């Protein structure tokens, strides 16, 4: 069974590293964080709903 050339391993490492970085960036930037104003309004409505 022939062994793989060092340049083959290097190109595979570069390709997999680039795909991993791109996949991580897509996952990181796909979530849109909510603004603090919307969180404050949600907390105030929830606290009003559960008054006894």
Automatic annotation (TrEMBL):
Subcellular location, record wording: Mitochondrion membrane
TM regions (residue ranges): 6-29
Cellular component terms per the entry's GO annotation: mitochondrial membrane; proton-transporting ATP synthase complex
Keyword Transport recorded: yes
InterPro entries named in the record: ATP8_metazoa
Pfam families: ATP-synt_8
Membrane topology according to the record: Single-pass membrane protein
GO biological process entries: proton motive force-driven ATP synthesis
Taxonomy, superkingdom: Eukaryota
Molecular function GO terms recorded: proton transmembrane transporter activity
Broad class of where this protein is predominantly found: mitochondrion
Keywords: CF(0), Hydrogen ion transport, Ion transport, Membrane, Mitochondrion, Transmembrane, Transmembrane helix, Transport
Subunit structure: F-type ATPases have 2 components, CF(1) - the catalytic core - and CF(0) - the membrane proton channel.
Family designation: Belongs to the ATPase protein 8 family.
Functional description taken from the UniProt entry: Mitochondrial membrane ATP synthase (F(1)F(0) ATP synthase or Complex V) produces ATP from ADP in the presence of a proton gradient across the membrane which is generated by electron transport complexes of the respiratory chain. F-type ATPases consist of two structural domains, F(1) - containing the extramembraneous catalytic core and F(0) - containing the membrane proton channel, linked together by a central stalk and a peripheral stalk. During catalysis, ATP synthesis in the catalytic domain of F(1) is coupled via a rotary mechanism of the central stalk subunits to proton translocation.
Protein name (record): ATP synthase complex subunit 8
């Amino acid at each position: 069974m022939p062994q793989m050339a060092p340049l083959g391993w290097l190109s595979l490492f570069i390709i997999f590293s680039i795909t991993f970085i791109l996949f991580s960036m897509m996952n990181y930037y796909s979530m849109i964080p909510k603004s603090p104003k919307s969180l404050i309004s949600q907390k105030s409505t929830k606290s009003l709903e559960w008054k006894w």
